[in-house]
Amino acid sequence: MLNLSVIAPDEGGFAHLVLTADPNSRTLTCGVVARIAKSNLRKIDAEAFVLSGITFKETGLPESQCASTEEVAFLATGKPNYSALADLSHHSKCEYASDWRLMLGAGDVPVKLSETVRAIASLFNAMERASDRLRNAVERIASETGFPSALVTIGAGETVFGEATYHSADMRADLPTQTKTRADTAQDALRSLCRQEEVFRKLREGECDKRGFEYRPEQEQFANAVAEALESDGHLLIEAGTGVGKSLGYLIPATRHALASGETVLVSTNTKILQDQLLLSDYPKLCELLNYRVPPPVVLKGRENYLCLEKLRLHALGTRAELREMLNELREISEERAISLALMRLALHITSEASGDFEHLMFPPWLSAEAAQKIKRLLSAAFRGCLRDRCPLHNQCYFYTHRNAAEKSPLIIVNHALLFAMANPAAGDDDQMASFVDKAPVWVLDEAHNLEEALLDQMGVAIVSRDIIELINGLQRLAQSRALGMRLGMPVNEVPADDQEAYGKLKKLQNDLPGYAEACYESFRSLAGIAEHAHRRLAERGAGETNRWDFTEPAREEIAELKEEVMAAVATLFDRFIDMSGGITLLAEHTAG
To answer: What is the pLDDT confidence band of residue 22, given thresholds at 50, 70 and 90?
Structure first.
């Protein structure tokens, strides 16, 4: 049994509701709402307090025992609010969730408090869907950050603040099983689809008006032109104003063409927001107009947009030491409680069917934007730290799951930045992404006037100060790594004869790493200084736009002069990295696993 207290502001004091949670019967029993003075709050015997519309400072209770309704609702649902569908005070018994029930005692429960009770029950349901291993990992995050552990250990028996590592095999077992749905053949779909002419006849005659659709002559003209271009294997450039309905104008003919020809149609938008709009808003409308649930398009985004399960396991769900290292990187830029909620929610996210797309993963609204970006960088599927097909969670990886789904999809939705990244041979060689470009003979480039900017950004080489500094810091941490130190700390006579040479090189690498890191930092600092000086000089001379300069334009002598300095600094920095790359590769080979 677990005793919780729900506290809310009331005239002259506080309203107090006692909750008793019984994991065996999965029942929350509510006592009578009573008024209580602030001086008596500390006398309440409860494992945790849930505060509705008030802060722990106003109650005088310890923060480590308190959680707000918004925090509980966020952990349970990924949203910071939990609106009751009905006033629960009118029901003696209300089954509002699949597992937990609410038993009300005598008297009415105010709506605000009943919403809090619902949020608590939803959190208990979310925790019950998690395995013991994952629940212990969530509890470890709570204990390190001061969140009331009683709220995340319900039904787990004794609390375990252990140091056990959450293994890849554990995570594979805890991930939801992918459900397989029946898929019609392309010919079945074609026979069931409304023809394009029929769709626009219904719109023209007002048959769809009651469902919120309206007929637009320009949209029909647009769709007919797209259909003709697809049939003739031609090129088509259309300029259309706002309100034409361009998305459905090309989706209707493109979908039929993809199913009829077996060819993949690739749609590229300017932003990731428009990608989600096509999937979440326009695709349902398309199905409604065609009177058939056509195969859903696959939305592809860059690696950095997806949560990496292995990095989440290593950094947030691993040992206490690994968690503390991550928390130390985040504490300076956001409140610890917000960080705690973000990490716990990411952990609970993996128990549900989800895309792993950060755009769909909610962070607490009170988490700073800088901290949210930092968490994404640390835990994204970006190349740095990705083991690709050698990763133990490769088959469950959100990034590769989307890539595999795209191989079988008639309609793929990308953004311009990713399109050019895939078209870049270097990207294709490294990650087998160029095949999507080759596979799709039909391209629809939405908002094509943004293509030039996207092309310049993707086909260039960027040196980002944040990434360089993080890399240098990573080298310094590697030199101080306890695991590496233990591996290299064995006596030389215990090293197998075949590994003697490698052992010596590794030992030298550990000693040289701090020097490498310092040399890289000095080189980078020199490059940054040259770049800042160049920016000032060009701005003072009025050399046009100062955000982008063409170093190949011969007419700009001042740019030509600076080019040599910049390129020399870049070459020095790269030389530093090349110097140590052999040692790093050797380290990876001899510490596999």
So the answer is: confident
Residue 221 has a pLDDT of 95
Q: Among candidates 58, 82, 86, which has minimal Cα distance to 69? A: 82
CB-neighbour burial class of residue 318 (10 A; exposed 0-12, middle 13-18, buried 19+) = buried
pTM: 0.77
Helix/strand/coil for 2:
strand
Structure tokens, 550: 């063409």
**Banded pLDDT at 380 (limits 50, 70, 90):** very high
* Closest to 101 in 3D by CA, of 2, 4, 22, 16: 22
SS3 402: helix
Would you place residue 155 in the very low, low, confident or very high pLDDT band (cuts 50, 70, 90)?
low
- Which pair of structure tokens corresponds to residue 52? 């509705």
DSSP label at residue 195: P
Distances 578 to 520, 573, 582, 584, 585 between C-alpha atoms, Å: 11, 9, 7, 10, 11
Per-residue burial over 503-532, b = 16 or more CB atoms within 10 Å of its CB, e = otherwise: bebbeebbebbeebbebbbebbeebeebbe
Instruction: Give residue-wise pLDDT tens across range 381-407.
Output: 987 778 888 899 999 999 999 888 888
Q: Are 387 and 588 in contact (CB under 8 A)?
A: no
Provide CB contacts within 8 A for 179, sequence distance 6+.
353
pLDDT digits (tens, 9 = 90+) for 207-225: 988 888 999 999 999 999 9
Q: How far apart are CA 499 and CA 511, in angstroms?
A: 18
> Tokens representing 165?
């590592």
Q: Which DSSP string corresponds to 100-121? A: -EEEE-SS---HHHHHHHHHHH
Q: Binning pLDDT at 50, 70 and 90, where does residue 96 land?
A: very low
Interatomic CA distance for residues 56 and 66, integer angstroms: 6
Best CA proximity match to 445, nearest among 268, 317, 314, 229: 268
pLDDT for res 429: 46
Angstrom distance (rounded) from CA 82 to CA 482: 45
**Rounded-to-integer distance, Cα 233 and Cα 226, Å:** 10
Length of the chain in residues, anyone? Answer: 593
